[in-house]
Each structure stands twice: as C-alpha cells, then as structure tokens.
Amino acid sequence: MSETLSLFELNHLVRATLEQTLDGEYWLHAELSEARLASNGHFYVEFVEKDAAGRALVARARGTMWARTYHLLSPLFERATGERLRAGLKVRVLVTVEFHELYGHSLNIINIDPSYTMGDMARRRHEILAQLQADGILEDNRQLPLPRLMQRVAVVSSAGAAGYGDFCNQLEKNAYGLYFRVSLFPAVMQGANVETSVLAALETIMSRAEDFDCVVIIRGGGATSDLSDFDTYALAAAVAQMPLPVIVGIGHERDETVLDVVAHTRVKTPTAAAAFLIDHQLEQLTAVQDLQTRINEASATLIQAQRQRLDHMTSLLPRAMALVSERQMRRLESLSARLAAAPQRQLMAANHGQERLWQDMTQAVRLRFQREHSTLQLLAQRMKALDPALLLRRGYSLTFNADGRLIRSADDVAPGTVITTRLATGTLQSTVNKAIPADEPLDTRQ
Amino acid sequence: METTEQLTYEAAMKRLETLAREMEAGEVPIDLLAAKLKEAQQLLAFCKDKLTRAEAEVQKLLENQ
C-alpha cells in the first residue's frame, strides 16, 4: 500500500513530471473557442480541436497570453490579419505547457504566427467564392449596370458609427450641389451578430428595392477588426443577388473580404464610398452639360447652314428676278397686244350682227305694213259697199218714224202716221194712207 | 414628350442624346428646330434639377402633408 498523497502533492507531482518531460516550446495549431481580455491586461483563451467533420470536439485546453506578451503580439497580429484575436479564429501559436497545482493545465502563449490565420481565412474565402461560382451567382451584382442616377442610397451601417457620419457629411457637403437621399438600415457591423443583422437589413432593402438606386455597406473607420465576420456564404450570396448595385466600404488596406469580391464596387472607407457616388453623379452632370453644349452647337450649326443657304438664295435672287421679270414683261406685252386687238374684233362682229338684225327688223316691219295695207283696202272696199249714201244714190231710201227710228216693216206703221223718208238728195215728209203687210200684193198704180 | 411627372432621368437623357444626334446629323428641319431646342432645354433643366436639387425631398414633404 503506497502512501496517500494530498491533492496538492499529486498536482505537484503532475507539474514536476510535465516540467521535466515537456519542458520545451511547442508550435500548436488550434481554433480559439473563447478569447477574453481581462482587466489586468492578461488575455485568456480556450483552444479546441474538432473532428474531421468539424462538429465534435476532440481536444480542449485553456491558454493564457500574459499582458506583456499580449501588448507586443496583438497589434502585430491585427495589422497582419485585419483581425483581433477572437473566438472562431484558427491560430498557430508557440506555447509552453504549464500545470498549476490550483489552476490546472494551461498553455502559455509566447508567440503567434499570423500567416497561419491569414491562410485559414483565405482558404475559407476561397471556399465561399468557389461555392458562389458553382451556384452561378458570383458575378451577378458585379454585372449589374450602374444606373445613371444614383441618388437614393440605402446604407447598411451602424447608426452611431463614425464612418456613417463621414459618409453622410461627405455626400451632403459635396462641392457641386449634387443631391443625394440617404436612408439608413441599421445593422451590427462587428461581432458574432454581423451576419444575421446585415442579412436582415439587406432583406428589408430588397423588399423596397424600387425605392433605391444602390446599396452601400459601410462600417466605422478607426480600428480594423473582425473582417472575417463578413466572410460568410449567406452574406456573400445575399449581396451577389441584390437587385441593386452594392458598394462595399468595409475593407481593410490589405485584405479583401468575400463581400469585396461579390459587390458591384469595393472601396476602402465610407468616405471613399461617398466619393464614388459623388464622382458618378458628377459624371452625369458633365454628361448633361456635354449634351447641352452639343445641342447648342448643333443647332447653331444648323441655323448657320440655313443662313448660308438663305444668303446664297439672296445672291441668286436679282438674276432670277431679272429673268422672271423679263419673261413677265414679254408675257404682259403679248397679253396687252391681244387685249388691244380683241375689242376691235368684237366690235366688228357686233356691228355685223346689228346690221343683220336691223335688216331683219325692217324687212319684218315692211311686210307687216304691206299686209295691213291690203287688209285696209279690203276693208275700205267693203265699207264703200255699205255706205248708205251710195245706196240712196242708187234709188234706195230710208224711212224713219216720228221718233227718228228706222222703219223696216209695214207692220210697224199705222195709217195716218207721219213718216220721214230720206232720199239721195232731200227728204220727204208724208202721211201713211195704208199699211200693206208683206203677204199682200202692192198696187203702186192706184 | 412625356410629362415631367412621369419622366425619368434615364428617359430624359436618352431623349437628349437622340436630339443631339439628330441635330448633329443635320436631320432636324429648320421648322422644327425651335420646338426641338425648347424640348431639349426643358429636358436639360429637368436632368440638372434631378442631379442637384432636392426635388425628391420636396415631393416627399408634400406627400407627408
């Protein structure tokens, strides 16, 4: 039966054994599952190793970077990788193995190799890009045409970030009076929530895509950190498939994120994003002014050409007029000659007509007179035959009663009546002895 | 020409480019030149306004009233 050890004695034995057998420095690669800067300046982490499928943990160990080392190494690391030392990173570190009777097993970090982390991040980016390529969406956003008018800007950023303020200032105070309307869609731009938060913002913008001309993703200036938060497939796919051109200003001087690759345009800072928009709009202003110049010059040229044509015509005019007027004069002359001749001819024709008419008329009158004349002669002869004087002279007489009425029948006269008989010369007054009717023979010898 | 309410910057610029090309090609009859110039000037003013003036903002304010 061996002696019984106290816990301290056992732990001390472990520590002594470790110090004897693992007394050197070891390069170790592992993933950081936790990383925390304590108020005393020391940096505490937890290393993990996962199985091949990347799910189950196969190893775990605590690690410490003492304050002095941390102050030395962390700026170098950040400058190289663009990342803070944080959970989720894969790191290659130089460690010594420690064991403390009270605190147990721990790895003391004495150096770190940023190129390993960079390589890992690059590999991850590469995998994401390869996947986007395979899905056929890698180039989608890059190939969108920039609208000529990019003034309704949807910004994904954190509201309080200095970068967002810079961006707005820059746009507002542009020297050309160009107008922009900025709408902020707030999102967490740092830490573990970047992916979900930015995705939510992009989704909101997507649902109102017709209200905007472009999307700008920017984050605050100052410390460069946590770029790899943006290196996720979901974010990259969302940006690639955005129906509006996306301008990304989250970059680091040296590295590019997956978003930088898939976005339509990548710039380094929010200020540069603003400058990009201003430049684009300035190009449009220049284009408008160019068009104005072209139109003014072209219309001036057109007017000038017309004026020259007019001048040319004007110079041709006198000769043309001379020709025309000469021709007109000739026409006038011939017209006037014809006009002068015409009335005479007409008069002659008229005279001729009148003469004939006159002859016709006189002839008609003459004939009429002759006809009337013969009628008159006939009438005269008939009249002559009826003349009572002529009859009286032949022996006929006219007998009137006392009233002066002509007596045509013996029946009209009673015996004793005084009658008056008119002869060719003179008049007889007699008294009727006897009235003999027409049917009794007259004996004149009585 | 479309009325200014419906007119987009894109359409205005395209029309202006067409007008400029026509004029440069001497295809504009002199009778129509004045009308085309007037149209071009309106379009130019519209485009410049779009780029520089807070027209959209004014619109928004009006809508909110």
Layout of strands and helices, then pairs:
The complex is a heterodimer of chains A (446) and B (65).
Chain A: H1 7-21, E1 26-37, E2 43-50, E3 57-65, H2 67-81, E4 90-100, E5 104-112, H3 114-135, E6 152-157, H4 162-172, E7 181-186, H5 194-207, E8 214-218, H6 233-240, E9 246-249, H7 258-262, E10 265-266, H8 270-386, H9 388-394, E11 398-400, E12 418-422, E13 427-431
Parallel strand pairs in A: 3-5, 6-7, 6-8, 8-9, 9-10
Antiparallel strand pairs in A: 1-2, 1-4, 2-3, 4-5, 11-12, 12-13
Helix pairs in contact in A: 2-3, 4-8, 5-6
Chain B: H1 9-24, H2 30-52, H3 55-64
Helix pairs in contact in B: 1-2
What does this protein look like?
The complex is a heterodimer of chains A (446) and B (65). With 446 residues, chain A is of the alpha/beta class. Helices cover 48% and strands 19% of the residues of chain A. Chain A has a five-stranded mixed beta barrel. Chain A has a five-stranded parallel sheet with strand order 7-6-8-9-10. In chain A, strands 11-12-13 form a three-stranded antiparallel sheet, with no helix packed on it. The model of chain B has no long low-confidence stretch (mean pLDDT 79). Chain B has one domain (9-64). Chain B is 75% helix and 0% strand. The A-B interface holds A 147-149, 151-152, 176-179, 181, 281, 284-285, 287-288, 291-292, 294-295, 298-299, 301-303, 305-306 and B 9-10, 13, 16-17, 19-20, 23-24, 26, 28, 30, 33, 36-37, 40, 44, 47-48, 50-57.
Name the descriptors.
heterodimer, A: 446 residues, alpha/beta, OB fold (Dihydrolipoamide Acetyltransferase, E2P), Rossmann fold, five-stranded mixed β-barrel, five-stranded parallel beta sheet, 9 helices, 13 strands, rod-shaped, B: 65 residues, mainly alpha, 3 helices, 0% strand
